[in-house]
Amino acid sequence: MAKLQVVWFKRDLRLQDNAALTAAARHGPVLPLFVYEPTMWSQSSRSGRQDQFMRGALTSLERDIAVRGGNLSTIVGEVTEVLSDLKKSFGGFELHAHEETGDLWTFGRDGKVRKWCSSNDVVFREYRQFGIERGSKTSRNGWSKRWDAMMEQPVLPEPTAINWFDWKRGRLPEPQYDLKLEWVQSAGRRAANDTLDSFLTQRGEYYQKDMSTPLAGESGCSRVSPHLVWGSMSMREMYQATIARQDALRSGPSEKRGYWLKSLNSFVGRLHWHCHFTQKLEDQPDLENRSMILAYDALRQSNAERLERYENGMTGYPFVDACMRYLAANGWINFRMRAMLVSFASYDLWLPWQESGKVLARLFTDYDAGIHWPQVQMQSGVTGINTVRVYSPIKQGLDQDPTGDFTRRWVPELRSLPGKAVHDLETVAEAPTTYPRPIVDHKAATTYAKDQIFALRRDPVLKAEAAAVMEKHGSRKRQAKRRRA
Q1: CA 364 to chain centre
Q2: N or C end of the chain, less CB within 10 A?
Q3: Do the beta carbons of residue 187 and residue 57 sit within 8 Å?
Q4: CATH top-level class for 4-129?
C-alpha cells in the first residue's frame, strides 16, 4: 500500500500550480492539511484584517477540494503536535509543503518541523513557490536570469484523479476582533482571477502613474498583493497572464494599446522586485528585528506619544494623517504613500523602524514579511546602500492630492479649509482647533535625521559593512528576458 502523503498548506491556498500537491498526488493518497496556529497569530505584526482575508482564502480552498471529492483537514494547534497526532493515528507518512519566507517566527516553526520529521523518520519535501532561492549557495549573481527562468516554466496543471484521504476536521476559533474596515477585499481563487483579469484588461492602463497617488491607486493598482500573500494564485500564473496580455496587445491594432504595454511591463517589474526583496529576508531572517548595518539601530529612540499619534493619524500633518486613516479604514494604500509613511516615521518622528514597521504591518491586509521588512529598512536609511529618501508631507500632499479632496475626506476636522490650504496649516490664519498642530518641525527634524544618517555613512568601518551588504543583498543586472514595451 502506498504511503500516506500529507500536503501541508501554509500560504499556498490553491490547487493550481501547486508543486507540493502535484508531487504528493503522484505518490499515494493525499491528506490536505491546514494548521491554524494561534501562536503565529499572536505575533506583534499580525492583525484581524490579515486573519479575515486568510479565512476567506481558506474557505475557497475548502470548497475547491470538496467539489473534487476531498475534505481539507483544518486543525487548530502547533504543527509538530498535529504531526505527532497524525503519526499516532496512521504511522508513517510523507510531508509536502512549499518553502515559506515569512516572519522570524515562521522560520523557527519550520525549523522545528524539520527537526521533528528527522527524529520521527518522516520525509519532508519542500518546494519553491516564488523566485526565492534557499540554501548556502544562493548568490545574487545571475539571480534575475534564474527568476525569469522559473517564471517562464510551464504552470503546473491541477492534478486529476487525486486519491483523497480523509481525516478529522476542526473549526477555527471565533474571531475576537472588530475590524471596523470600510472596505473589505474579497478573498479566494475566484476573487484572485477576477482581480487580475480586471487589472490586465480594464483598470491597469495607467498603472505607472496610478501607483503614486491614493486618488487613482485604489482602482489603478493591481490589488493582487493579498492573493499573493496567501497563494490563491501563484506568481507564475500572474506573470504568464501578464505576458500573454502584452502579446495580445502587440498583435492587435496599435491604436488600442494606449499606455498598456508600458504599464504592464512595470507590473512585471514589480513582481520581480517582490522576490528581490523577499530574497533578502530569506538570506537574513533577522532583518525583521535588526538593521542590515547594526550600528544604525542605536540612532533612534522610542517615543510612545509620537508613535501613538502616528498610528492614530494625529500628527498635525494633514496628508500624512489622511493616508494613515485611509490605511486604517481600508487595509491598503498605494506604494508611494507607504514609502512616505515610513519616511515620516523614520525621519520626521525619528522613531525606530522596528516600532513604526509593526504599526504598519498590522494595518496592512497584505502584510508580507519578505517585502515589508526589507522595504521598511530601505525607506528608513539603515541599509547603508540605498538612497536616503526623505518625503516632504506638504509637497506630497500638493503633488498627489492637488485639490485637497482626499485629505478633507479623511481628516474631516479640516473640511472648512479650501483647496490646497488643507496641506499647509502654516499658511492658514486660523486653523481648526479640533486638529493638532504639527508634532515636529519637518525641516528641522529631517535636517537632524539626515545629518545623523550621513555621519554614519562616512564612517570607514561602516562603508566596508555597506560593501558587504551590497554583495549579499544588492541587485545585479535587470532581467535579460523581460519584455520591453
Answers
A1: 8
A2: N
A3: yes
A4: alpha beta
List % helix, strand, coil for the chain (3-state, nearest 5). Answer: 55, 5, 40
- Which tens digit of pLDDT belongs to each residue from 140-190? 889 999 999 999 999 999 999 899 999 988 889 888 776 677 778 999 999
Rounded to whole angstroms, the Cα distance separating 348 from 398 reads: 18
Chain position carrying cell 486604517: 328
**Under DSSP, is residue 93 helix (H, G, I), strand (E, B) or coil?**
strand
Residue intervals in the chain for CATH 1.25.40: 189-283
Domain 189-283 has CATH 1.25.40: yes
Written in H, E and C, the secondary structure of 446-464 is HHHHHHHHHHHHCCHHHHH
What spatial distance separates the first Cα and last Cα of the chain, rounded to whole Å? Answer: 54
Contact 102, 369 (CB under 8 A): yes
Is 97 in contact with 20 (CB distance < 8 Å)? yes
Q: Considering Cα of 418, then 419, then 423, then 425, what sign does the dihedral take?
A: negative
Which cell numbers in the block locate residue 2? 502506498
User: Could you tell me which residues come within 8 angstroms of residue 176 by beta carbon, excluding any fewer than 6 positions away?
Assistant: 48
pLDDT tens digits along 284-293: 999 999 999 9
pTM of this structure:
0.94
Other CB atoms within a 10 A radius of the CB of residue 320 amount to: 31
Query: 10 Å Cβ neighbour count for 210?
Result: 21
Question: Which of 404, 290, 304, 433 has the alpha carbon at shortest distance from 353?
Answer: 290
